[in-house]
Amino acid sequence: MSTGLKPTSFAATDIGVTRDTNEDRFLCDDSLKLYVVADGMGGHACGDIAAELAVDAVAEFVRSGEKMLASSIDPKDDVAFRTELVEAAVEHAAAAVHHARNNQPGCEDMGTTLTLLLLVDQDAFIAHIGDSRAYRIRKGQVERLTNDHTLQATLVADGVAPETISDRYGHMLVRSIGGDPSPKVDVRVETLRTGDRFLLCTDGLSNQFTDEELAVMVDEEQTLETIVENLIYVGKLLGGRDNLTAVLVETKSQATPESPCPLVDHVAQWFHRAIHMMD
Question: At the N or C end, where does the chain have fewer CB atoms within 10 A?
Answer without folding.
Answer: C
